[in-house]
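WARN retry 2 of 3 for item q-0093 after timeout on previous attempt; input resubmitted unchanged.
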Amino acid sequence: MRSRLQSDGAAPRFRRALPAALALVAVACGGGLAAPDAPAPIALPVPSFHHVHVNSIDPDPDGILGEFNGTAETTELFHGHTHLWHEQPLCAANWYVEHLGLTLPPLRDPETGAEAPRPPYDPCDVEIGDVSYPTFLPMGQLRSPIGNVRLANAGWAWYSRQCRDGRCGPELDRRLARSRGQVVDHVAVSYPDLDPVLARLAAAGIPLLDGPYAFGDTRAVLIEDLDGLAIELTEAGS
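OK item q-0093 returned
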């Protein structure tokens, strides 16, 4: 599924996609290391992908695209990855790692295959690459830079905002709109315990849009990332 409106105006809007199964420029998108005398960051477990909230009545009234991973022999569909659009994908990756506990894909030694932790992207605000094909976008797709992060049970891949430099018409050269109330209202991730997550958000000065509120027999909160994508942080039930 794909959707994320690019503008808040009344003109026709180019939506950003979420290929099936379903990737911010923030207060501190560098994700840098703490100063030597700064308190250690609050440790978080890597969250799990939980759900996507879609405001839709019929299967495809709003131009949502779906991508299903599998072959003719596939008997069960599965969640493979999520694509989202951001102003600066590498800054988005840093933000999610720093504040929500997601992880960057490891660095791999080309000779030995050994893996090592990937440091935060520095710089993260980099030049947008060339147009590439094949793609469902008639004007070609901007795939570089791409920011990748991992959850416990899925991966997210973030491309740059596609409507820029007149590619979708001058009226659509706008920053991404906030997701609440759009076709894709929010995405959700789950933690075994919300307490360290809430403490980390508070330490970083990231406000809660809503909550904590009841979520089944547990609880949840709602925040926004650096480009206005709403994220529901849920606590796993017993």
